[in-house]
Design goal:
The strands form 3 sheets. Strands 1-2-3-4-5 form a 5-stranded antiparallel sheet. Strands 6-7 form a two-stranded antiparallel sheet. It has a two-stranded antiparallel ribbon with strand order 8-9. 45% of the residues lie in helices and 12% in strands. It folds into 2 domains: 2-223; 230-380, no CATH class. Helix 1 runs antiparallel to helix 2 (57-73) and helix 7 packs across helix 8. A hairpin with a 6-residue loop joins strand 6 and strand 7 (269-270). It is α+β, with helices and mostly antiparallel strands.
Amino acid sequence: MMKEELNSFFKNWLTDKENATEILRENKSYNAQLKADEISGKYYPENKKSFSLYGLSSADILSKKIPALLHKNCSLRKPKYKIQGSIGQGNPVEIPWICIFDLDITSSAQEGYYIAYLFDAKLSGVYLSLNQGWTQYERVYAVEEGKIQINKNANYARSLLKSDQGFSYAPINLNATKTLGKGYEAGNICSKYYPADAIPEDDELIDDLRNLIGVYRELKGLIGSDIIEIKGKLDEDQFQEEIQEGKRKELKPGKIEKKSKKSNSSSPSWSRDGDIAFTALDNADFHCENNSGHETFISAKTGHQFVEAHHLVPMEFQGDFEASIDVPENIISLCPNCHRAFHNSVEETKSSVVRKFYNCRKDLLVQREIEISSERLLEFYKI
């Protein structure tokens, strides 16, 4: 069924697109003349001509038939995943698409990252691609810098993935001439190409999608929902490695002056001291402070159990405080699993651990002149 519907779309879309474009052009001319008649009092809005792209058979395939098949055959539950196909809004798009959105990450092709079937402009084939929303980059960086950043983040994502499930990291070519299509090309993380004249059987199509969903889930576990700040994830990994080679650093009591910001090509961030984080882990005797029974492995660098450092008041909010929040009292020793709970867990779990450590640390933070309410801290975690 999937193969049959895809073949039908390839057969009909260019003709449907050409006919729709002509109808829209004629309607625009007619409605402009109708509007001009308003001057003579002959304008009747109800006489305007309209045309919906989604009355086309091609649109029905992309917006209804294939999404229904994907929900059914790949067990993609609707409360968890949204599947949407588009041939355009108002006018036909250069690159038709079908997107599979994990709703924890995004519900729109403009934001986050998602799986997409991207049909090239010449309709010579379709890519199954793990891709990124271009509009978010265009909004933050503008077009030229956005192209650079989206491509960088695609490379960062590839560097984090442990398995590509056989998908290619090679660039994709959508034969795009417009900004949005070029954004899809730059945003590709990994993909598989199906030529229009050699669409595989349904079993292969479904297996490929299931495998890419596995890659999608892995990336979600590594970076959460925000791919624009993926560079921060790499910085985080490097910071955790740096901590393993740290040494104790004793600070004077009371307020510590905050450090300056450091800058990179994407966004400014606040400096963190690996030795201060090491001190916090040492103070916790290299145990998980959320659950001392959690065991990991012995670090080759420290000779102690491997744990990670987490700033309870996140460093990105250093600008809200006069005192440094890069102090041992604000740093928690956690096993990797509990560390991820602060970043990626459901709201109930995240709220529980944030409240727990707020109550444990609030008096110690005050001694460092770091004053914050539990409500404000929960806001930092978007709770």
